Amino acid sequence: MPPSNIQHLPASHPASRQRPKSPNRVLAEAEAQWIFTEEELANTPSIQDGMSVADERQLRAKGINFIVQCGVMLKLPQLTLSTAAIFFQRYLMRSSLKKPRGGMSKPVHHYSSAATCLFLATKVEESCRKMKEMMLVFCRVAQKNPNLVIDEQSKDFWRWRDWVLQEEDFLLETLCFDLTVESPHRQLYDMLKFHGLEHDKRLRNSAWGFVTDSNNTQLCLLFNSRTIAAASLYAACRYCEVEIHDDSKGRPWWEASHVRLKDMRLALDYIVTQYDPTAQKINGTSVSSSSDGHGSIYAGLGTPIVDEGMGSTRARERAPASASPFPAPESERRTSNTSSIGIKRDRDVTATAADGHAAKDSAEDEQDAKRVRLSDKPDSVAGSEEGEVEE
User: Fold this and answer.
1) Residue pLDDT, tens place only, 162-208
2) Is residue 384 domain-resident?
3) What is the pTM of this model?
4) Residue 14: inside a domain, yes or no?
5) Which residue range(s) make up the domain with 231?
6) CA 350 to CA 322: how far, in whole Å?
7) Dist CA 380 CA 130 (whole Å)
8) 17, 59, 292, 379: most buried, per Cβ within 10 A?
9) In total, how many domains does the chain have?
């Protein structure tokens, strides 16, 4: 019998075990696989098959709108709609809406793909609805008749049912069964809670609205969820005129969240352009002004190119020391993909004793903060009167 080539280690040397990756690192690596460049977004499978960039992005917007309308009628939570929108955006990066697939006579309709993404998102986010209810809503929204009476034995009902079940398998294969989505809504809630702003209703609703509106764009394919949440929080702070204190180390709030200023500027510029009435097109589709004809109320936010210091949302006073819930991408953090509002963390904020010059410093800091707010306004607002409130 030939000798074995297996090398046996002595008992004093236990077998080495590779340390498993932290959940936060796994989630970050999975999300990084779906981050693309502007050049890649302009070269999707549909565009390669002959569809124009404007038409392709218009179909994306229509698909997202279909998801939102169906979600409203089904009374689905916003996190489910956000997950479905991300699935739809990722799906179109690997599948074409121009070319028929697998022996089909016609290309896949964007409504059918959007309905399948919503059907899958209800399972992922554990907000399931009955098959009958979903198929009825799909028929009504597709035919633009919310009061349409559909029989369960009708051809339309069974056509939608068979198509969604068949398309679900192809959707899973296209997404590589990567169903882990870190919603920017959860990241935003964690940021608000860490800075003690979760009870500011106006700021919270504004930031939540910016994140929700970002689903209508391809922002989730350009930046990670944390960057989108930080850009939305900054836009909300500018709109509500709220300042956030630096952390105990003197770093601005976006650095405490481990978000690069360059990425946040690009994401913010992408968000603000969506509301800018002076821009004729965004993502290939035209942008109209507000209903009163006086332009968008978000136009006063300005762009990050003008706002060099990003200081209008930053209070120079240091906040009390506290543990940051936003570790670096390499550090470990436990995450929960099933929670509706993210992880609940107990943060013990330690109160710092005031020194002998507290009264004098507070008055000087208040004057400095006023100068910062005035100096950091965009060019469109800096020329107005000093007492005018930025809209």
Assistant:
1) 888 888 988 999 888 988 888 888 888 888 888 888 888 888 898 89
2) no
3) 0.67
4) no
5) 182-321
6) 7
7) 51
8) 59
9) 2
